[in-house]
Specification:
alpha/beta, TIM Barrel, two-stranded antiparallel ribbon, 12 strands, 36% helix, 17% strand, globular
Length: 277
Amino acid sequence: MTTPCIICVAITGSVPRKEHNPAVPISVSEQIESTHEAFEAGASIAHCHVRKDDGTPTSDPDRFAALMEGLRKHCPGMIIQLSTGGRSGAGRERGGMLPLRPDMASLSVGSNNFPTRVYENPPDLVDWLAAEMLRHDIKPEIEAFDLSHIFQAVKMQQEGRLRGPLYVQFVMGVKNAMPVDREVFDFYIRTLKRLAPDALWCGAGVGAGQITVNEWAIAAGGHTRTGLEDNIRLDRARLAPSNAALVRRAVELCEKHGRPVATAAQARRILGLRPAA
């Protein structure tokens, strides 16, 4: 396969630091430094959350603005994707940073169970977030935690609530949601291709399933996501030392399966994004 593989690095997440590897970057300066290392290792998308000074998650637009400014300076051309996830805020607060016009933003189009809570994405909030992304020319990354989310994203595109072609990320390995299952993964690909032939897709595995889904996605011709947000370990005994280390692992899988790694400029063309700011 000669299609370049886009590698997304999820640099920090929104789980409290004490539950994470100490290498997870928390402050804006730490995030910029960690993302720069991952960018140099081969990542072309940065999936970003922000934290308060005490490490708790927030949707503060000012912190997102500072992070975006630093990433644009130190990672020229890299695609900036901001999270609208539910751990960092409630209701429309989750999309308060969208007027900053990042290249992309995550969008979950349905609810599902997380390890200890329901990840709520009510229809009215989903519609508002999607409308804000249309208004500010932001490409959504559809986070599909369940098969129904693929169908919903396609329906929203058909109705004009999402601009195509879709970019859908299959998220597997979240406790109480979809496990890492090869037959399901293959069915996701077939279903998306059947419903939206022009759609692109990405595979993300959480926890121990990260490297498995990385390899499945790369070998199947899709794109992939890695990073400390999704997996704090390289193996059972050793903590992952950095986001860059996890990106390098994905790059090695690309080499194994004959996939070139997409540069930021190539990733922008593949995803149909506007030129870098």
